């Protein structure tokens, strides 16, 4: 299963993260100038957010106290559990740890910190963080015999996985709080608004 926007309220996390920069005089335009979110297209080069490189770029801007921003960001990411959706723990507790795998796209160091400090690591038998498509993560990290369901909020990722592992049942997660509003396609076998609905699909 995916992390951002499936287990983790990334929309609220990013909004609060940006407030740190704004409080030190970084405008929204300046913040976005060197910020990369989830890639829209897959063309062999996926852009991912790297906070260290972001701060390096801001150091070139006059009047920005990058050292203070870095300090506040460090404190901010120490506890990310408040951004875990309320239905997540109940869902994770409903399944044996050996059946749960977390597949997360992102800048490895930053993403691992977010996941570790969210408090959900103990529910997964394996956590894979990388900057490649989910099918690649699965190919080298998960046995095919362990693949049952994929819970994901991006149709592009579902499509990619389903083409390579057609036996995997896919659930498109479309939370109201999600940052993306991907439309279900022929590779999405199910659709759920949250993990309560996803749980019913899996159990039934």
List key phrases describing it.
single chain; 204 residues; Rossmann fold
Overall description:
The protein is of the alpha/beta class and 204 residues long. The chain folds into 2 domains: 11-76, no CATH class; 82-203, Rossmann fold (3-Layer(aba) Sandwich), CATH 3.40.50. It is built from 9 helices and 5 strands. The chain has helices at residues 10-23, 28-33, 51-58, 66-76, 88-93, 108-116, 134-141, 155-164, 195-203; strands spanning 101-105, 126-130, 149-152, 169-173, 190-192. The protein has a 3-stranded parallel β-sheet, with helices on both faces. Strands 1-2 form a two-stranded parallel ribbon. β3, α8 (155-164) and β4 form a beta-alpha-beta unit. The chain is elongated and about 55 Å long.
Number of domains: 2
Helical fraction equals 25-40%
User: What's the mean pLDDT score?
Assistant: 91
Q: Give the CATH architecture of the largest domain.
A: 3-Layer(aba) Sandwich
Intertermini distance: 18 Å
**Secondary-structure element string:** HHHHHEHEHEHEEH
CATH superfamily of the largest domain: HAD superfamily/HAD-like
* Order of strands in the sheet with most strands: 3-4-5
* CATH domain fold name of the largest domain: Rossmann fold
* Uncertain segments: 37-45
CATH class of the largest domain: Alpha Beta
Radius of gyration: 18 Å
- Choose one word for the global shape: elongated
Q: State the oligomer.
A: single chain
Largest sheet: 3 strands, parallel
**Structural class of the helix and strand makeup?**
alpha/beta
Residue share in β-strands = 5-15%
Count helical runs.
9
The counted number of beta strands is 5
């Amino acid at each position: 299963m995916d992390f951002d926007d499936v287990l983790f309220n990334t929309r609220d996390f990013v909004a609060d993260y940006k407030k740190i920069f704004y409080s030190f005089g970084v405008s929204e335009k300046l913040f976005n100038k060197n910020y990369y979110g989830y890639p829209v297209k897959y063309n062999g080069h996926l852009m991912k957010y790297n906070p260290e490189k972001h701060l390096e770029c801001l150091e070139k801007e006059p009047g920005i106290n990058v050292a203070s921003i870095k300090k506040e960001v460090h404190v901010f990411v120490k506890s990310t559990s408040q951004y875990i959706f309320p239905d997540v723990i109940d869902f994770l507790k409903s399944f044996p740890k050996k059946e749960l795998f977390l597949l997360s796209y992102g800048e490895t160091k930053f993403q691992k910190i977010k996941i570790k400090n969210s408090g959900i690591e103990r529910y997964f038998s394996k956590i894979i963080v990388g900057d490649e498509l989910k099918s690649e993560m699965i190919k080298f990290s998960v046995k095919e015999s362990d693949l049952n369901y994929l819970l994901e909020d991006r149709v592009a990722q579902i499509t990619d996985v389903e083409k390579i592992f057609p036996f995997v049942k896919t659930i498109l997660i479309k939370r109201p709080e999600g940052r993306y509003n991907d439309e279900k396609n022929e590779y999405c076998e199910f659709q759920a608004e949250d993990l309560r609905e996803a749980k019913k699909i899996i159990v039934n």
